[in-house]
Specification:
about 525 residues
Length: about 525
């Protein structure tokens, strides 16, 4: 049994728990538009999830009654958020705070596995959390990647802890938790399970090498039990509602075979086998350059491997590499991708704190004369940088604004003039018009999705219902050239909008009313 002299006390002190949790809550409150400081979260992705969540608590079944493409567990989470309030994203903000707190706490626990950081190094935590959550990959807050990468950090902690404090294999209880984590990832977005697949492969290889099949079996059946514990209620829900076929079609079949995006092909991405290596590496490198905060943290994460003590380095590097490459390999399976896909890799960022903490420990030793002044100065500078990071986050243009600042609520005033109005967001994703008006969709395909070109059923249903005059109001984007005989344009407005590139633009909508 391996032991580590510095890390006998693996429990965090009250201060070491308080600082990460407070940092996480403050950060999320400032950067996420789900928080009470903001009028509303205008992001279409988060609104699609929230509409599904609101639908669930009113008896609608995902995929069967309301079509969307993410996993059912994400909608159940948003249903819990909707139980708190259907009128805002406060519930989603609470979920964000919990997940960010877990990420912060387990990141610090990972740091303490490999170093004994000086007390003033705790000032790094707020800045670290601020950098992680203020990257433009975060966008407006509430996406699946953001809610899931803390789960990877917890699993990473289990693996690293087993290397430093044990025999390299997780405990039986941790195997059960890993099964639960894998199940959660699978039912939120199944491409997230690459990390856990790598972790399982690491355990399998290590167990076979040692011929420790007894412990391997003990870990395997507990992992399976953890996966089943969460999966059974999900499947029972759809079975009880006669919607297993809808779950299969929308979440699995359509995503695997019909979902495409439009980035141009390159020569290497068209060559079999090579494309499976080239596309993931290209995606990570491209996003690291495009989003400097993400790139810097990822670079520090790789650099941290050189700061691991030699007796732990071989297993740590093996665990890191096998999980990392399976993560990106499963995340980037197609030639094109959406910018926030790479954000799931933030689960590794806890390792980036290791070289930073060791650097601060070196500075502490170097300034033996008047060390208190130097420690206070460094802490102050880190806190100032944290404050600047929060203030420069791209969403501050919306902070403290009234709801009427957004077209969603201005249009709601018009829509609510018709009692129990039926509305459709046509050729545009759900950006919150249903929630702002306090209404639920009355048709299955309630908004635009990126799958329309290969799944014509969406537009076919929408066009048929429009022709029949089913909707009282239709919301479209500025770019939609719509000419319906039975609908007239009643409002046309544009809002200032800061997108994921950080650039300001005008986000325009048109509102049509049935003639």
């Amino acid at each position: 049994m391996q032991t580590h002299g510095l890390n006998v006390k693996d429990k965090l002190t009250k201060t070491e728990l308080a600082i990460p949790v407070i940092s996480a809550i403050v950060t999320i409150t400032v950067v996420s538009t789900c928080s009470p400081l903001y009028p509303f979260n205008p992001w279409d992705d988060a609104n699609c999830f929230f509409t599904l969540g609101r639908g669930i608590i009113h008896g609608l079944v995902p995929y069967r009654d309301l079509y969307e493409q993410k996993g059912p567990l994400l909608y159940f989470i948003y249903a819990l958020a909707a139980l708190i309030t259907e009128k805002s994203f406060i519930g989603a903000w609470i979920v964000e705070c919990i997940m960010a707190s877990l990420f912060a706490v387990f990141s610090w626990k990972i740091v303490k596995l490999f170093t004994e950081p000086p007390k003033f190094a705790a000032a790094l935590v707020p800045l670290f959390i601020g950098l992680t959550y203020s990257t433009r990959l975060f966008n407006f807050g509430g996406n699946a990647e953001e809610l899931c990468f803390p789960l990877l950090t917890i699993a990473l902690y289990f693996g690293l802890k087993s290397i430093v404090k044990g025999d390299g294999l997780p405990s039986k209880k941790e195997a059960l938790f890993c099964g639960l984590i894998t199940s959660a990832l699978f039912w939120i977005k199944y491409t997230f399970i690459g990390f856990m697949a790598g972790f399982c492969l690491y355990i399998l290889i290590l167990s076979i090498k040692r011929k420790d099949f007894k412990k391997l079996w003990a870990l395997v059946w507990r992992f399976i039990a953890g996966f089943v514990i969460l999966s059974v209620p999900v499947l029972l829900y759809f079975a009880a509602n006669g919607a297993l076929d809808s779950l299969w079609e929308a979440y699995f079949y359509n995503n695997i075979f019909l979902y495409h995006s439009g980035e141009a092909k390159t020569l290497l991405s068209s060559i079999p086998v090579i494309r499976n290596i080239y596309i993931p590496l290209y995606a990570v490198c491209k996003m690291s350059i495009k989003y400097p905060k993400f790139g810097a943290l990822l670079l520090l994460t790789f650099a941290s491997l050189f700061f691991i003590e030699k007796k732990y380095r071989k297993k740590t590097v093996f665990l890191f590499l096998i999980t990392f490459f399976l993560s990106i390999g499963l995340t980037f399976t197609k030639n094109s991708f959406i910018y926030y896909y790479v954000y799931i890799l933030a689960g590794y960022f806890s390792l980036a704190l290791i070289p930073l903490c060791k650097g601060l420990a070196f500075i502490k030793k170097s300034f033996r004369q008047n060390p208190g002044f130097m420690q206070g100065l460094i802490s102050g500078v880190l806190i100032i940088f944290y404050g600047v990071t929060l203030l420069l986050n791209k969403n501050t243009y919306l902070i403290f604004e009234k709801k009427e600042f957004l077209a969603q609520f201005r249009y709601a005033d018009t829509i609510n003039q018709t009692p129990d109005a039926r509305i459709l967001t046509y050729d545009v994703m759900d950006s919150g018009f249903y929630t702002a008006a306090g209404l639920l969709p009355q048709n299955r395909f309630f908004c635009y999705l990126n799958i329309e070109s290969s799944y014509p059923a969406i537009l076919e249903e929408q066009n048929r219902l429009i022709e029949a005059g089913f909707f009282d109001y239709i919301v479209t984007s500025y770019s939609c050239t719509c000419d319906w005989d039975n609908y007239v344009l009643v409002r046309e407005e544009a809002d200032t909008y800061v997108d994921y590139t950080g650039e300001k633009a005008l986000d325009g909508y048109r509102l049509y009313k049935r003639a």
